[in-house]
Amino acid sequence: MKRLPVIEMDGITKSFPGVVANKNIHFRVYPGEIHALLGENGAGKSTLMSILAGLYRPDSGFIKVKGEKLEFSSPRKALSAGIGMIYQHFRLVNNFTVAENVILGAGKSLKMNKKQMEKETLKFASQFGFDINPSARIYQLSLGEQQKVEIIKMLYRGCDILIMDEPTTVLTPHEVNDLFNTLRVMASQGKAVVLITHKLHEVMEVADYVTVLRHGEVVGSTPIAEVDETMLAKMMVAKEVIFNEASHPLLKGDSILELCNASIFGDQGHLAVQDLNLDIKSGEIVAIAGVAGNGQRELIEAIAGLRKLHTGTISLDGKVINDLNIRQRLNLGISVVPEDRMGMGLVPNLDLLDNIILRTYYLEKYSDGIFIDYKSVRKLAEEMVEDYNIYLSDLNHPVNYMSGGNLQKLLIARELSQKPRVLVAAYPSRGLDIAAAESVYNILLQERDKGTGILLILEDLEDIFRYADRVAVMYAGGIQKILDADKTNIDEIGALMLGVEYVRKTS
Amino acid sequence: MIKAKMIKRQHESLLVDIGVPIFSILLAFIVSGLFLYFSGYDPGETFSRMLKGAFGSSYAVSETIVKAIPLMLAGLAVSLAFRMKLWNIGAEGQLYMGAFAASWVALSFGDLSSWVLLPLMFLAGFIGGAVWGFIPGALRGYWQVNETITTLMLNYIAISWVSYLVFGPWKDPASKGFPLTPRFTLSGYLPSFGDSRVHMGLLVAVVIAVLFYLVLRYSRWGYEIKVIGESQNAARYAGMNVARNMVLVMLISGGIAGITGMIEVSGITHRLQQDISPGYGFTAVIVAWLARLHPFSIIVVAFLFGALLVGGFGIQTFGIPYSIVLMLEGSILFFLLAGEFLRRYKIILVRKEEQ
After folding, report:
1. CATH tag for B56-313 (out of 3.40.50, 1.10.3470, 3.30.70, 1.10.240)
2. What is the pLDDT of residue A503?
3. If we measure between CA atoms, which residue out of B285, B281, B286, B282 comes closest to residue B28?
4. How large is the angle between the packed helices B58-83 and B280-290, nearest 10 degrees?
5. Which DSSP category does A344 fall into?
């Protein structure tokens, strides 16, 4: 039986300044199909779907919906063609009821009073087997229930094609089950669902068909029956053999920083990190490989001293430092380059001088107790700008106006100026172009050669192989395995970071 | 087709920094002028009368300064909280609590000499306002209660409290039923310059402005205020105690508003009564914004707003309602906030190719 695709995307290319997010992509979805769009962070999944939802316009290529060639100039146009996207952050009005969120804005609302809206919502929802209280207000609902409301809202607006962006990240395992059942019901009624995800087991569990993206290109598109998790993992991560620049006559010294059986709570009150063991020796780069959201942020904050360990110990040079705050840890030699460069590491609206003393302004060097000695700060700033080749127009301009690469160099330079024993850097090359990323990594390599222990949190496997001495693979809040970088390969790491058991080929 | 497009500014622009406030004031006068015109008044004559009322004689100028002093102090008070992005719109209530506390000292210890009494009143005024700032500060710092709401609500409690006192227990039996407390003894009077009504409060305001300037620009605590105001996450990362600093800033902000109240009762009314402030605490919000929170600019802007108030009193004798002043104030703030947008974006015209 030959069915007609409900969505055809052909030759889609989209580039942003400095990066091609989608390269000549062909993508087809059939009615009644749950289609998983799989890829690492930055593979181009969200860009492709944003094009389909009318948020972006492709540089070239075209979109056909139900055989008809269409051009979407806005999400509204896409919606009227039956394409609805559900984002990770829900588009719901918190203080309104479920019924109001579903019905208001759908064009029929003015003729209905509250009672009628609730009745209509209930009737509509039950068609798809949704069990939801239409008079509840959004803020009273769990995230899983809110997601249901989003789905009902889209269906009520007549969507046949539902795009869901990483829908399970906010859900509990039980809610994930619920969601998958819902999706199956919808598919059985002829709707098409596109599931953006990087979780392999979800793909295997719910999808009928899978398309894998890597670096903005389609690397495979196949029915789910013809693949398994290991094959998908291989498709997701790069295959080129990468020369490991890190392999050098290792001067590995003693362990500096050690975490023992560490458990850490996340913001939602669940254990984001569980029973984690990790050590960093002097003169080595340890990279944490893993898909974002597997406990990395909590781990960094716990090392920095912004988050308490629930159980376990953290020690520096053999001394337990669980109870020390962030300033005491900095003074002992733990420097941290946080993930959120502009939101935490730097203050965008303050000038370079103020940013340089963010972590040390209270020290005697820069302050007599009451006033800050800006003369010595300026001297330090000038040295730093010189030593690290930081380009800027004026020390007194807000750092907001500097480029990403220079900001990252500034941040690292500031942390290194404390002469740390250990430097933790989260995603140091994120958002940087190749040249800037390289100069950032060069700074880190030099620092390692001076004997500093460096912990990098990375998601790009190529970078990991290029720079790390050891790789710790993080998955679901724990370290899966710690491997020497020159004794493993990209397939093994790729499988481990997706939670798949890797079987080494015996040759 | 030509289309307007907004793009993000790459640099700060001095022209915009100065131009926006001036343009806001101008636009506010135009809008209010149109309104006057359609209500059957002559806007030109009204504005020139206001100008004369505010600057036309040495008495007029001194009255303008008298009204500017509380605006300076209250403006400085709220600007401190604003720097930390704490929206203290409770300066009015803090002013009343300061006036209340200072009056209690003046009425209870009236036989002390001014050298003792005035500093005591000063301290009491500070504490009265500080308590009124501490409450919303602690609620915000430790329990994330929105300070805009709490400071606003506390205003009404403070104003009603003072009303209760002057209508009830503190009413002067000799006041023939007017809601006034007895006059302070002479030692509770703040000294004036010569025979004018301009009092020492002016010096207090200038000293506080200088202190603010030094603290905010060069001190460690000023640095903490800056960082916390810009980014609480960065402040945590820097190891600062965010909650404690919030409480401290609200306490001092309230305290200075309280000093404003002390200075009004001690320098002008010489007793506690209703309506010691025609909304200084609220106008101060506009003053602080217009001055971009800069302490010295606040002194200058407060002077202009003092003139607006005095000019407004002047036109009432010609049958033009005083509300025109409130309208001017409101529209200045309105245009000013709208102009904030221009500080971040510039608007350019582009030719858009037809598709």
Report:
1. 1.10.3470
2. 58
3. B286
4. 70
5. I
